[in-house]
Recover the amino acids of this structure.
């Protein structure tokens, strides 16, 4: 049986969402990409609470692509909560953000981000960066299933 590899994309910008989904589809690695648009939805999805309490499918995604600037709960607060919850503490989280702030990069790593990737402004560069993320996290990396 083939393992279902799911990506959770946490992105409130519809244009960035579309570009990320297109880039991931192009490299054809993920069986499924689930999208949520704010930090609270991300927490509910990962912790199976609220609107996602009856969610089917894989228990946890293979990787979470997490923006920082999100409505309701910001991405860094989502990351902090994930790392402090035993069930989600080992889920790989890639910060995928437009932020150029050193403090965001430092806090991301302090809170346990596995990677910090700045979204390139150029579409081709953005698509290439997302494709490389997908290849690494879904095809090359050996996840911890602890």
């Amino acid at each position: 049986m083939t393992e279902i590899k799911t990506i959770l994309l946490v992105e409130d910008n519809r244009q960035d969402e579309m570009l990320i989904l297109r880039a991931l589809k192009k490299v054809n690695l993920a069986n499924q990409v689930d999208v949520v648009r704010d930090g609270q939805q991300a927490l509910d999805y990962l912790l199976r609470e609220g609107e996602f309490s009856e969610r089917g499918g894989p228990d946890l995604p293979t990787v979470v692509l997490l923006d920082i600037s999100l409505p309701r709960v910001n991405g860094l607060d989502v990351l902090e909560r994930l790392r402090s919850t035993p069930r989600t503490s080992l889920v790989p989280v890639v910060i995928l953000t437009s932020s150029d702030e050193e403090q965001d990069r430092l806090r991301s790593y302090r809170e346990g981000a596995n990677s910090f990737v700045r979204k390139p402004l150029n579409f081709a560069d953005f698509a290439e960066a997302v494709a490389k993320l997908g290849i690494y996290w879904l095809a090359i990396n050996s996840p911890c299933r602890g």
In short: Helices lie at 14-27, 39-47, 75-84, 102-110, 123-140. The chain has a mean pLDDT of 85.
